[in-house]
Structures are given as structure tokens and as C-alpha cells.
Amino acid sequence: MEKLKNYIYGEWVEGSGNGVPLYNAVTGEQVAVSDTEGLNFEQALDYGRTVGYKNLSSMTFYDRGEMLKKVALYLLERKKKYYELSYKTGATHVDSWVDIEGGFGTFFTYSGLAKRMLPNTPFWVDGDTQKISANGTFLGTHILTPSEGVSVQINAYNFPVWGMLEKLSTSLLAGVPSIVKPSPFGSYLTNAVFQDMIESGVLPEGAIQLVCGEPGNILDYIKDGDSVLFTGSAHTGRKLKSLPSIAGNAVRFNMEADSLNCSILGLEAKPGTPEFDLFIKEVRNEMTTKAGQKCTAIRRIIVPEHLMGDVQSALSKALDQTKIGNPLSRETKMGSLVGRQQYEEVVRKVNILKTETELVYDGKHELVDADYEKGAFMSPKLFLNDKPFEKNISHDVEAFGPVSTLMPYKDAEEAAALAKRGKGSLVGSIISHDENFIAETSWKMASQHGRIFVLNRDNAKESTGHGSPLPTLMHGGPGRAGGGEEMGGLSGLHFFLQKTAIQGSPDVLKAITKIYQQGAEKKFSDKHPFQKYFEEVEVGDSLETAGRTVTDADIVNFSNVSWDHFYAHTDATSLTGTIFDKTVAHGYFILSAAAGLFVSGKKGPVIANYGLEECSFFKPVYAGDTITVYLTAKEKINRGVKGRNIPSGVVKWLVEVVNQRDEIVCVATILTLVAKQSPFIDLNVKNVQKILNGLTETTPSQWGKMSPQQMIEHLEQGVLVSLGEPEAEKCYTPEENIEKYQDSLYNHRAMPKEFIAPFLPQDGSLPAPIHKNLDAAKQSFIDNLKRFVIYYKENPQAEHMNFVFGKLNKEMWELMHKKHFTHHFEQFGLI
């Protein structure tokens, strides 16, 4: 039987003991053995703290975000084999989708957040700069850096993939190395995904390690700066939290425990309403998805007392219709528990619940292609607690399977009170169309819940469901639920980051944070900042504009153009008792006039105004005042772009507007999209001709079979095809891939060196020479390149077919030629 290997200190290591046998939850057959005996956990932790920390913490947040995306794409291509393993854990296809692709989706989400919102630096500036001196020479701010330690992540058995990836998404993005410790049950699935993460080659050495089996004494070696994340029972979590190595050191501890989550049906949601039907469907889904083995499953069903009979009847019918059995069967809607051990534990808890509450539904389902004796199957079970304020067992005991309890309430006050008797839950839901009931109940129960999910006819089509944690929202809860927080968008990174206050002069803060601070030294040059590519812009690059004197006509004209006829701009007789001496220029006119002063009219790398982040007006500007603008590059944000967008970054510019007395009248931060410098040659004819001067008959090719002349004639044929001479008869790329190929023209990735042109002979032979020699070929190529430039000036809407990229317009042909020329000029070492 295969023994699962562990991945520690950069190598795959097999345990030296007998290990724990792992079984197929459906058939009872043994699948693998997990074994951690003999592993050197102390060495593993040290390896993470040293090698892993050095490699990850030196990367920028932006690059770590790109890393997550690459890993997720690599795993997504291999998802079929994960599903095959997931079925053995008892999960249906839908269960597996939530676990497997939900995990990948978390990586994708955090990658997107990083590339949109995090800096291209190894640290992250948190919050605004604080002015802590009268004259602004002493400032303060905060930075976040990766906590200097290793993160040990102990996961539960119910989500072998998502459970691992949702924790890694934040720890890896924060720059903290991690050791993953999955539950042994289902760990063969975790192991398979982890193997591919390592095989991808994307993650730096030491970034992640895997302990696939019992945890042994790994937590004995936890030190200051390390962190422990635990998902599992509240009882086990409290024991871990009290360990001397954790409680006695500066170790960050996060617990996400099971909880007695509830769902409340609104008072008005009687049978026949959309909300009643949604409620029955939601409760059934949460009882049967993953066979009820979800920390977010509905355990307490809180129903208006006058609707108890209706709900019990409708829910029983819905559960009757749920097909249980082999996950490989298309009929199956609910699989098995993860194993016999978990089955016995659920039976034990069910028997405890029976001591105080009535079992009113115990499904007698016939299994689909499965056997109760061999697999860990359990039918759904519904209890009734008729006195939920007296009988506390429903609020204390959780059967971690397809088990839930009905209980009545009278009004919103009672509904909220029952919800809170769970003593802390991950999620509570309210299904109602009465906004007053929803509002009153939700804020009263919020203190004991990590998430409140409201469902009704208005959001049902797009709702993700009661039991689905989302990467952009916090997952966790108070009290019994563990008191922890995971995910929650970028706030989920804070657990792994050290927050440090930074104090100093404006120039010092600029040097540390890479963000310009008011009062810091400005850098002036003859080149207009808007004429610089993203890579060329440096924080502190500045421009001082000419002055502009504001006139009465400016104020009147702006009122007419904007329709802003506020009295302070138009009626001098209404200014008594105001802060104004006479009619004042509009604030947005000042900002617009400032833009008119600092923009560069000449086309350059600045693509567009991306937004206005903040704007404040400090002093009024009257007719006769003269304004001058200081424009300064404040911050650069790398930006991932996809599709048919020009590769670019965002530059934040500090705009300071002063009057003739050098008083600041307006301060704003504007954002511009700035193009990145293309690595491909420009189609400037003189530039191309200059490059070709270095090409001779003897210039060697660095790859491929082409001679210098064949290369030039190949490029010339490409130019002629872009002119429709001749029109390419067909595109060889499948229709479903055309859009992706055309999008690739816009990015800055080079063409592959070994690409086999589909229109060339299959035997690899090359066309016979067209021109008498290389010089003649060069001249003909340059002549046709000149024709290309003129042709698309005269015919800007023209489109012609390309053999690989399909029908291309002017912009696409230019991009294609830039990449294509660069590709072949590099082939002969010309650039």
C-alpha cells in the first residue's frame, strides 16, 4: 500500500513507522498510509524560518500575487485527477467542486487583490501619513512587513484542498513560509495537490512544507515570531492554544472551530412565499452538502412557532428526495461521511441529542450503488426542540454530519436570543422579505456571529449560499467558533504581518516608504513627467507650471458650462455672513485649471486619467489671483493587465496649487495610467534600417534553420500579407483560440523561439530565395515597410487575415510586426 510522503526541508521524506491506514469512505478499501514517524520537525521549522523566510520575504507583494496565479493555473490544468481522489473521500461532484475549484478560486482572488491593490515592494504602507509637528518637518506612518517566523497550519478533514489553499493564500501573499498539516483522513488528496504545487516550480525554496499524518510533537518547537492556524473542534483548539510553546511565547494563534450555526425563517415567510421555498432548499442543502461535514452547516433551524408543522413537513419531503450513495453515480446528491471513525462519532452525538430532544425525521434511504456496511453512509436526521429556551442540548452539542434541530420562536427578540445561544457561530442566516425584521434581528445577533447571510427573492439568483465563505469576506467567528479571522480580503494578511510605526522627516519617510511626502525634496528636470514611461518615473519627479490669472469671465463661464450656479460663485450680494469676500472661483474650476497647466499636450506614455483619490480646498481663489501648480510623482503601483489593454502601471501624482502669495489653495492626488516601455522595437523605418545594417550573409542564427536572407524575406512576406498582398486564405488557429491569440499581441511576452509556423511545409523545409541577394532583400523589405505605414494612414479601418492570429486591424498588425521583427532580429543577435 502506498505510503504518503512528507515534504520537509526541501525533499520528499517517508515516515519510518507503520503509519495510519487511510480508507475509501465509499467502499471501505484502503487507499494509502500516512506516516510522520521519525521526521525531524525542529529541522523543518528552522528550514522554513531561514530558507523559506529569506526567499519569500524578499519578494514584493505584487510578485507574490503573480506567484499565486501561476500556481492556481498549474493546478487547474490538472484538476481531473483531484476529482478522482475526492470521490474516495465520500464527496459528490458538487462537494468536490467547492473544495477543489473553490480552493483554486481563493488563490485567483488573492492574486487579483494583490495586483490591483498591493505595492511592488516587500513592505506595505498602511494608512495615511500623520503630521506630528507644527511645521511638517516631523511625520509618522506605519509599514507592514512579513512576520519573521514560520506558519504551522493544521487543517480539518472536511475540505482537503480548500482548507489548505485558503490559509496559504494569505500566508504566502504576506511572505510567510508555511508548514501544512492536513488531517490524515483525505490527506491523499491534499498530498496530490501539494505535489503539483512543488512540481510547478513556481514557489521559492522553503515557501511551503507538508506533514502528511499525525502532528507528533511539531508544536513543541514553535518559537517567538511563529504562528499557528488551527481548524477543527473547539475542544482540541483550546488544548493547542494552552500549550507552553504557544501560550508562553509570542506566537500568533488563530482558531476556526465548528459551531452551532443557525438559520432563521422570517415571521412573514409562510408556505407559498418565495422565502419559505428558499428556506427549505437552503436548509436541505446545508444538511446534505458534504454530508453535513461543514463547519458552516446549519445545525439549528429557528422557525416561527406557527410555521413549525409546515417546515417539518416540507423539509422531510425535501430530504426524502435526496439520493444518497456512491459519488460516482450521477443520481447521487449526497455522499458519505469521511470515514467509519467519523460515522461512529456522529452516532454518539446523535444519541446525546436524543436524551433531550425528539428525533422527528430519520431517513430510510436506499443507497445508490453503495453499501451501508462498507461505506460511511448516514441518512439525514432532523430533531425537534420544542422548548429551546429550556432544553440547552441543541445549543451545546454538535453532531458533525447530516443532522440538524428544529426550534420555535415568537418574535424577532426571541429569534436573535436563540441565535446567540450557540455561544459564538461562524454564520447565521435570515431568510425573510421583511426588512424591519431582518434589520432588528441581524444587529441583535451580530455580536455572536462572524457572518450574517440574508436570503430572499431579491438576491436568490446570485446568492452564494449560507455555507460558502468568500475570500473577500471574513471567515471566522467569536466564542465557540474560535475567535479567529481568516481571509476577509487584504485584512486577512494582517495576521501574518508586523506593523511598525515609522517616524522621521519627509525625506526620510519618502526614502523608507517609496511614497512622496509633502515637504520632501522635489526632482525637477527638462523632460515633462507625462513623457516618461512607467519604469522611468521616479517618486519625487516634479514639474512647476507657469502661472494662470483667474478672471471674472472664468468664473462666469465655468458656472455656465458646469451648471453650478451656487450663490458664492454668482451672487456677490449674498455673501454677507459667509467666509467669502467676493464671488469665488469654483473648487473644481481650480482643479481643472491646474490640470490644464500640468498636462502635456504631446502624445506620450500617459494613457488616461485613472481617478481622483483625494482633493481638498484650503483657501478661496478670487478673480485676479494667480495660481501655479506643483505636480509630483507620489507613488507607483504596478498593475496586472489582461486582454487587449496596453501593459501599464498606475502613478499617483500629488497636485499642489498655490496662489501668488505662495499659499496652498488646493491639494489633490490624481491617478494616471502610464504605459510600460515596450521591449519590442518601434516600427520606425529609420530605426529598422539601422538595425539591418548589422546583418550580413555570415551573421549566425542563434536558433532555427533560417539564413539571414530567408529571415528578411520571411518578414517581408508578413508585411505583404498585412497589406492583403496576397490576402491570407485561412487562419490555422482553431476558432475557439483566436481571441486568446489576439489578446497575446498586447502583452509584453516575447514570441516563443520554437514555434512552428503552420503555413510552412510540414517537412521543415524553407522557401527558396526570392531576391538575388541579401542587400536586395533588405531594400525590398524596407520599401514594403514604408508602404505599410502609408497604407494604414490612408486606410485606418482596413483589416486583413493573418495565418496565426486571424483577421487583424491596424493596431493589431502593428503589435504583431513589433513582436515578429523583434523575435527574428534577436534570432540573429541584432538587438
Q: What does this molecule look like?
A:
By secondary structure, the chain is α/β, with parallel strands linked by helices. The chain contains 23 helices and 31 strands. β28 and β29 form a beta hairpin. α2 runs antiparallel to α5 (162-174), α20 (708-722) runs parallel beside α22 (774-794) and α20 (708-722) runs antiparallel to α23. The chain is globular, with a radius of gyration of 33 Å. The model has no long low-confidence stretch (mean pLDDT 93).
Q: What separation lies between the terminal Cα atoms?
A: 57 Å
User: What is the tally of helical segments?
Assistant: 23
Main pleated-sheet profile: 7 strands, mixed
Poorly predicted runs = none
Mass-distribution shape: globular
Question: Mean pLDDT, as a whole number?
Answer: 93
Strand content: 15-25%
Protein name: Phenylacetic acid degradation bifunctional protein PaaZ
Domain MaoC-like: 539-639
Domain Aldehyde dehydrogenase: 12-499
Organism: Chryseobacterium rhizosphaerae
